[in-house]
Design a protein that fits this description.
The chain is mainly β. Helix content is 0%, strand content 51%. The chain has a single domain, classed as Immunoglobulin-like. It comes from Geofilum rubicundum JCM 15548. This is Secretion system C-terminal sorting domain-containing protein.
Length: 76
């Protein structure tokens, strides 16, 4: 889950699934370019999206086992 959606400057990525040390969030623009990567702490991470252009972004939560989940958000 991404809050708020649409995003203005900062986004909170929340993950309530299986957590393990090393679980990370990755954000990609529509061209497939990774624009952010960070580790989740207590199931969440705050992303400074102020430098992202407006548009649609893909969020991937990657577990150390290799399992992934994804969601999207829109940047104003």
């Amino acid at each position: 889950m991404v809050l708020p959606n649409p995003v203005a400057d900062y986004a909170r990525i929340l993950w309530r699934g299986d957590m393990a040390a090393g679980t990370r969030a990755e954000v990609y623009n529509v061209l497939g370019v990774r624009v952010y990567q960070g580790l989740l702490t207590n199931g969440e991470v705050s992303v400074d999206a102020s430098s992202f252009g407006s548009g649609l972004f893909l969020v991937r939560v990657v577990h150390p086992s290799g399992a992934t989940n994804s969601t999207r958000f829109f940047k104003k």
